[in-house]
Every structure is written in C-alpha cells, then in structure tokens.
Amino acid sequence: MKLENIITLRYLKNIRNNNEISGSSLIVIIVIAVSIIFFIASVSIMNGYIYNIMRIQLEIDSYHVEIPAYTSFGDSAQLLEKIMNNKRLSNMIRYAGLFREDKVLLTANGRTTGILKFRAIPGDAFLMDRGLNKSLTLLDGVKSVSLNEIMISRRTADKLAVNVDDHVYITAMASDRGAHIILRRLKVAGIFTTGYAELDELLAYISNSTGDSLFDDETPYSIMIKLENFNDAGNFAILYSIPKVITKQFYSDYISGLINKNDKDYLFARYMINPADNSEYILKNGLKINELKKLYTFFSNLGLLNPLDRVITWKDKNEATLSALHFEKNVIAFIVILVVIVATLNILSTIYITAYEKRQDIAILKSMGLSPARVNAVFLLNGIYLSLIGIIAGVFSGLLIMMWLNEILQFFALIINIFLWIIHRIETFFIETDKFSKFEFFSRDFYLDKIYTEISYIEILFISFITLVFSIIASLIPAIRAGKIKPIEVIKNG
Amino acid sequence: MKNRIIYFINKLRFWLFVSLKRQKGKKNLIFISLFSGITGGLAVLVVVLGIMNGLQENHISRRIEIGSYHIVVKKQKFKSFDLEEAQNLKEKIYGRFREIQAVIPFSDREVIIRSNKSFLDELQILKLRAVDPDEIKKDSKFLEYFELTRGDLSLKDSSIILGNEMYNSIFSDIGDQIYITPDISLSSFKLQGVPFYIADSFKTGSYDYDRYWGFISIYALKNLSGRIDIDGLGIKLHNINDSSKIAFRLKKFLGKDYEIETAWEMNRGYFMALRLEKTMIIVLFSLIFLIVAANTYGALKLKILEKKTDISILKALGASSRDIEIIYSVESVIAGFLGSLCGLALGILISYNINNIFTFIETIVNGFLSLLAFALQGLFRGITFGKFIIYDKSIYYQSGFPVKIYFPETVITCLLITGMTVLSSFIPVKRTGRLKPVEVLKNKS
Prior knowledge:
The complex is a heterodimer.
Chain A: H1 2-13, H2 19-61, E1 65-67, H3 73-85, H4 87-92, E2 93-108, E3 111-121, H5 125-128, H6 130-135, E4 137-141, E5 149-153, H7 154-160, E6 167-173, E7 181-193, H8 197-200, E8 203-207, H9 208-214, E9 222-227, H10 233-241, E10 245-247, H11 248-258, H12 261-271, E11 272-273, E12 280-283, H13 289-301, E13 312-313, H14 314-317, H15 319-344, H16 346-357, H17 359-367, H18 372-403, H19 405-430, H20 457-483, H21 487-493
Parallel strand pairs in A: 3-8, 5-7
Antiparallel strand pairs in A: 1-9, 1-13, 2-3, 2-6, 2-9, 4-7, 5-8, 6-7, 10-12, 11-12
Chain B: H1 2-21, H2 29-68, E1 71-75, H3 83-96, E2 100-115, E3 123-131, H4 140-145, E4 147-148, E5 159-163, H5 164-169, E6 177-180, E7 194-203, H6 207-212, E8 213-217, H7 221-225, E9 232-237, H8 243-254, E10 258-262, H9 263-266, H10 268-306, H11 308-316, H12 321-352, H13 354-375, H14 407-430, H15 437-443
Parallel strand pairs in B: 3-8, 5-7
Antiparallel strand pairs in B: 1-9, 1-10, 2-3, 2-6, 2-9, 4-7, 5-8, 6-7
Helix pairs in contact in B: 1-12, 2-10, 2-12, 2-14, 10-14, 11-15, 12-14
C-alpha cells in the first residue's frame, strides 16, 4: 500500500503541472465542499430552529410535566405535597408549583387584545424556576409579579401602546349562567419576550394572589413541574401513574382472569411484594426504570391505569409540532443528501481524466511489474484523497459559517439595504414613492428573534461518510479501467 | 445570396454529420447525464414550486379576500366613523368609481365568548368582525371562499356566524346561545355577557379564520358597545390588479383626512416572509443544477481529451475552431433543451396528479408492508407495521395539496437553469481552439 500511496501523493503534488487535471480536480473539491457546507447549513439551521422552539415550548409554555387538576387549590396543593413526599418522584423534580390558566381580554388606550394563555403563577416562580427565568427575557421593568400587577410581552405592550407602570384593564368572564363579567385594573410590572413571536402574543403573567381575587374557584389549579432533566418526563409519567398498591380483592377480580398464569406470577413475583397480612400487593422499592416500564405496559395493556392519574409531558403536548418540524427537516436533508451524492459523482470524470493523462506513467509502472490491482489502488486512493480534501474544506468552512451565520446574514442584508436605499433615492427624484422599508432576511414577526444553529456532529460524520462511500464508488470504474491499460501499446504509440 | 444559403446548409450538414457520427458505437454519457439531470431536477423543481405556490396562494387569497379587503379606507389616527358618516362616504365612493364591486363598512373586536352549554365551561377568544350585512352580499370573491353550512348569509341583530373549527370545538348547534364580552366603556357598562345566537358556521379552508374568527352584523355592535363605531371601509374591486391604481385615485379623491391602504401594504411583512421562503427553495434547487453543470463540464472535458486526435484531424482537414466548437456543443445544447422540455412536462403532469400519486404510493407501500407482515407471521407472532403516510392530514390543516403553477415564473426559471447548464458545456469546448494539430498528430498526446 505504501508504494501506491507515494504515487498518489506525487500525482496530487504535481497537479499544477497539468492543466486538465488541476482544473477538474479543483472543481471536484469545490463542488464537494460547497454541497457539504450546504448540508451543514441547512441541517444546523433546522436543528437550531427545532431545538429552540422546543426549549421555549417546554420551559415556558408546556413545562416538562403538567398534571391537570380538576379541583380547587386545596386539593391540588395536597396532591403536590403527596408528590413531593414521594422520594423517587421528588428526586427528579427541580421545581414544582401550582398555576392556572384562563383566557382574558386586555384593554388600554381604547385598544383590546385577547390573551389566550393568561397565567396565574406562584409569586416566586421566576426566582425558583431557573429554566423559566432563563428563557424569559426581560425587556423593561422587573421580572416579578406581586398583587395587582401583570407582566405582558413586548408585542402585547406595543399593541396596547402601554409601558411599564401603566395600567391595563382585564376583562374576564365568569362561568355562571348569564356570564358574569369580571373587570379589573392591573399595573404593568414588566415587559418580556420569549424570543418566539407567536408565543409572545398569547402569554401574560399574574401572581396566584391576583388570580385568586380575579377568578372564582371554578378555574382549577394545575401543577407545573420542571425536572432536573427534561428527557426524564416519560419516566416521571410512568412512576407517577403506576399503581403503588393493589389490593388482593382487585387482583382476584381483575388481574388474575385477564392474563395467563405464568406471566402474571412472574410479574408479581418480581415487582410486587405480598406483605404478611396477605391483603394487598405493594410495589417493591428500588425497582429500575426498565422494570417499571414493563409493569406499566402490563397495566396499561389491561386498561387498569386510572385516567385521573395521568400526567401530560411536554412530548405529548408538542407531538404534532415536533413531528411536523422533523418531517420538514428530513425532506430538506434528503434533498441536500441527493445534491451531495450527485456532487461526488464528479470524481468519476476527474479520475478518468487523470488516468488518461497519466497513461504513459501507468504503462511504465506496469512494465516494471506493478500489478493491475495496485494500479487500481493508486486511482482509488486518488479519488479518496480528493474527496477527503473536499470534505475537510467543506466541514471546516461550514462550521465557521455556522459560527458567524447571523453576522454574515446581517452583513449581506446591509449591502442589500444600501443598494435598495440608493435605488429608492434615485426613484424619489422622478416619482412619488412610499417610505423606504428595510429588507430583512428573516422577518421577526414570523420566526424566532434570530437564527439559531445547533451543530450535530453525528450528522456531519454521517454526511462525510456518505460522501466518502460515494466517491469510492465513483472512482472505482475509472480506476479499474486504468488497470487495464496495455503497457506495450501505450509505450509504442504514446 | 443563394450561394450563401447553400454554403450554410452544407455547413449545417457537416456539423450534424460529424457530431452525430460520434454518438454511434459508444454509450453517450454526456447526453444521458445532462438530459436526465435536467429532466429530473426540473420536474422536481416544478412540483415543489407548484405545491409551494398552491399552499401560499391558499393563505394569500383568504387573507386578502376575507381578512383585509383589496383597499381599506380609515380615518387618520385610529378615529372611527359613525354610521351616518360611513354611509355618506360609501355613497360618495360608489358614485365616483365604477371599478368597485362592494364597499363594506366593518369594525373589528377581540372578544371572549362562552358557550351556554352547561357541561362546557371553557372560554374562547374570538376575533369578531362586524360587517354591513347588505354590502357583504355584493362581494363575490368573499362569498366564494366563505362556505356556509346552511348557506344563508343574512345577519340579524343578535346572530353570529362562527368558523367551523370554533363551532365544533364548543360543541354548538345552530340556534345555540353564546355570551360575548361587551366593550369596556361607560356607554356600554354591563356586568353580564351579551347573548348572541349562532346563525350558521362557515369554512374558509384557512385554519386561522376557521378557528378564531366570527362575523356579526354591524348593527349588532349596538348591543356590544352601546353605539356603532365603524373602524373603516373595506373596498372590493372587480379586478384586484387595479388596487394600487384605484388606491392612488382614492387618495386624491378623498384628501388627507383618510388613510388608504392596499392589501399588499397591510400584509407586507407576511407576504415578504412567504416570498422569502420561495426564494430559499429556488436557491436550494439552483444548487442541484449547479452540480449538474459541473458534471457536464467534467464529462465534456473528458470527451474532448479523448478525441484530441480526431479534433486535430478535423482541423488539419480545414475545419475552423468555430466548427469544432459547434460540433462538440450540439449534443449538450440538444440535451439541455430536450431535458428542460421533458422536465417541464413531467413536472406539470406530476403536480396536477400529486394527490393521486401520493395515494398510489401509499397504497403500494402499505400493501407491501402488510404482505411482509403476513409473511413474517411464522417468525414473529403478531407482527404489524405502522401505516405508511406521506402527507399526514392530521398534522396539516389542508386535506390535499393545492397546486398552482405560475407560467411566467416557471418558464423563466427553466430558461435560466437550462442556460446555465448549457453554458457550462461551452467552457471546455472553447479550449479546443488552442489545440495545435501538428503537435497532437506528431506526439499523439
């Protein structure tokens, strides 16, 4: 392999001496690099978008886990205490609190806007819940809600033309027959943004104490839970809803008849304890999450889980959005992978050209005893080196571009704007035109506040691998043909 | 003159003879790769653009025809009209412009509604638009997109029409009572929600309107706010393309007291965002063609390298550099144009049958999967595969792909792409001019 390597490296070093080879090699490298940059850009931008939308959704909108309650403050508080007393559950929890949500109208300066997620949260939520605190950017005022104060988003504030310390009116509707109207005047304590324009429009916060004076008892309190690790939400749901105690009566009435004896005895022997008084089964301590999962599927297959014990995880809530976004990402990635594959096929003609130009060298090498297989290896290596150069160039410049993406786009937007402004100035000499409006790559009204990128190294590795495989396939055909050169003919005829 | 024509025909015969002669015997790599590249790429581009236009058009048309009118006349500084002012202005505009189909006094509110159903306790927020019930019937485009369940668009003083998504989500029936929050103002001070009766439900096909909008009569505002304030006059034209012209004339006609905006001006941000998405897609696809062009370049270069001797002989026999250029680029030009024609035709064919094609593929894949599951029953008991769905209707609001192909846009894109690809084949051909026949023939390299 050493000899082939030396020959290939020599070809690559002397590439400049031959116009034909250098031209097409350069094009191959550029084309591969550009398509890889493109792949990295599109995948990272989509990933960043998905990741940040989800981050905002699960920190601000849906929490990690929500336990919808159907009852009053007292009952919900009791339930929360029960959860916090359960060691296994409370170990996973970083923050938990009671909140409720309603829909209200805000009015100020003669303008009215609807708030779909008008939330009453604990007064200390911003202090205690680090995730919420981090995701919610304060633009003006303070990040806390005390009695008769409200926090609204920048968009809502702009719509109502209010500022910090101004007052807004709240109109809510009670649930009695005839729909009693509730009207209250609140002071704007702070103005925030989540970074996601669509969510900003929906949100406003008041404290639970304000909420108590505003809503009647019929708007129920739910429990919001933030976990140490949001990926544990599914496990939390399993732990929460698995029945801890099963009475003997329940066992004989429902479970024993439903499944065959072996499975049942096995499951119960492993996961449940039958204490001395023999009246009930109790969940074993220290069960691993996998074992609990088995038990959970067992119970849910039998339909024995209490629907009121269900929790809503952020995955349940955002499933539709998440799968739609993933679908879009996959479509884009698929198109770009096709582009990358077509780009690697460029290697085919380049190796052909190299082999054609070097046919005299090959003839000499072969006549000196180099086997056809080793000649093949030379050109295969040539293809691999070319694609490696392209891959490395593409990955590095792709990563660099991703690092400065927002700045680069701003720069281009600036250039375009200067250009447009000049055109606009020239236009105004001749005709009456509207005011100059700035060009923006991504309108803030419809996307996130800037372009987030999330580089996934696995995907970069994957595309590099694909490129390499296809470049090997592409260089195989010309490499084999190069091995078939007949030395005597080439040396005789040139 | 005659001689020149004969000369030209002879030349043409020479070009075609030599260039076509080359294609016999060996596989024609360049022709196949260029042709298939352009055909495939263009077909996909046409389909994607068609779907994208269709989806965008769906939103844009509803936004203009239902949400924002063609032109809106408002008073300066958010002041509102009273009923008499609005009527006078309406008559004035009708009297002056013949291009106008309808002038609709309207007023927008955001309100909370609550269903009267005892088991349902939920509040909903609604964008309530009060419109003149007589004028709205003149608006043909509005009526086209506004599908009513019962088909009766006569708004009475306490009746409301809800979008069908909202209608379903509050489990209502026609004739049900709902409560609406009144305005906060002294003249309308009320402690109770104002009862309205659901007269009908509508479907526009755009989720935003179907879920969050409701329509009442402008006279019903008296119940909500104590008096009738009109935000503005929405003007619908017979032909929407006239809107900027008419808006300009309206500005002159009405003077500076009024603010006049066209649909485009009102939705500038939204339309710009849509346009940007389309531009992104076109750029993404241009990359494919750039790479097809690079492939053509490489292949043609290789070909010329291999035919160096042939070219030298032709040159030695008296063919000019231009002859050689034409001979070697004829096939890529033919491939380019044939490819773009086929791609265009294929793309249009696919886009107009996209729903059928998707159903077809889904049926085949699902059939195959169920067969596979059946075959594997012996190995894995109870094995099933999930259903394969290309376009999940439960996630997206539209039940199918509305496809719209804009002819000029498509043709311009096609021409640009074909031009780019064909041009790339000229670069290696141009080099043949530098070839020195004597040297090549002497050294054979």
